[in-house]
Design a protein that fits this description.
This protein is α/β, with parallel strands linked by helices. The protein has a domain of 139 residues: P-loop containing nucleotide triphosphate hydrolases (Rossmann fold), CATH 3.40.50.300. It is 59% helix and 12% strand. The chain has nine helices and five strands; from the N terminus they run αβαβαααβαβααβα. Strands 2-3-1-4-5 form a five-stranded parallel beta sheet, with helices on both faces. It binds 2'-deoxyadenosine 5'-triphosphate, the ligand Nc1ncnc2c1ncn2[C@H]1C[C@H](O)[C@@H](COP(=O)(O)O)O1 and magnesium ion (MG). Magnesium ion binds next to α2. The ligand Nc1ncnc2c1ncn2[C@H]1C[C@H](O)[C@@H](COP(=O)(O)O)O1 binds next to α3. It catalyses: dATP + AMP = dADP + ADP; dCMP + ATP = dCDP + ADP; thiamine diphosphate + ADP = thiamine triphosphate + AMP; GTP + UDP = UTP + GDP.
Length: 205
């Protein structure tokens, strides 16, 4: 990352569809995105994965990012948005058919800034899952994930951040008529069947 302005012309010219994928920690965003990629061939960019890669790269801000993520808090908007822009540009250069932006927006301002600077999203897909289920899934994932934030202490903090900062995102896109609210307590395939209904409709529109 640098302070240089990112030239978004190729991304804007591509004009491909963009879907925001929103949900609490462990709601199944990554799991469903994998299935969407397999069916629709869209490019999947997870803001959390991009941040973890940035930490792994050993960049100067890695230590600062680790601290924020282990505290279950949100990293600054410009840091995430710049990582997403760079990743989108790389995908567009490879001929991307469209994007799943997983874990973004985490706060209303993130969505507004993304849409103002890049392009409006077609739809925000929201996976609605109870806190009990989220905790169960994350504790199970903790057995194998190696993720520093898959522990009870950080999970509680991530849920608090979700309720305070991200729940308003859901209301924001609902008000704009751009929200697909999907009850996501069932099996992966049951949830995916609902996802397909919404994506097919949005892609045709
Ligand atoms: N429908 C489901 N039923 C049971 N387990 C599921 C379901 N969907 C996903 N999982 C599992 C897979 C993972 O171990 C865990 C969390 O799913 P995952 O796709 O990683 O969530 P996520 O991407 O929303 O979480 P995070 O925000 O932490 O990255 O739950
Ligand atoms: N869009 C984001 N804004 C701020 N912080 C973010 C964003 N996406 C991820 N993060 C940080 C905070 C999260 O707790 C961790 C892990 O993200 P995840 O999507 O759960 O993998 O990264
Ligand atoms: Mg994920």
């Amino acid at each position: 990352m640098s302070d240089k302005k990112i030239d978004l012309t190729p991304l804007k010219k591509a004009g491909v569809p963009i879907f925001f994928i929103v949900g609490g920690p462990g709601s199944g965003k990554g799991t469903q995105c994998e299935k969407i990629v397999a069916k629709y061939g869209l490019s999947h960019l997870s803001s959390g994965d991009l941040l973890r890669a940035e930490v792994k790269s050993g960049s100067s801000r890695g230590a600062e990012l680790t601290k924020i993520m282990e505290a279950g808090q949100l990293v600054p908007l410009t840091v995430v948005l710049d990582l997403i822009k760079e990743a989108m540009l790389k995908e567009v250069a490879k001929g991307s058919k469209g994007f799943l932006i997983d874990g973004y927006p985490r706060e209303v301002a993130q969505g507004d800034q993304f849409e103002a600077e890049i392009m409006p999203a077609k739809l925000a897909v929201y996976f609605e899952v109870s806190e009990d289920t989220l905790v169960k899934r994350l504790l199970k994932r903790a057995e194998t994930s190696g993720r520093a934030d898959d522990n009870m202490d950080t999970i509680k903090k991530r849920l608090k951040t979700f309720n305070e900062a991200t729940a308003p995102v859901v209301a924001h896109y609902e008000k704009k008529g751009k929200l697909a609210r999907i009850k996501a307590e069932g099996t992966v395939d049951e949830i995916f069947a609902e996802v397909v209904k919404h994506l097919d409709k949005a892609i045709k529109a």
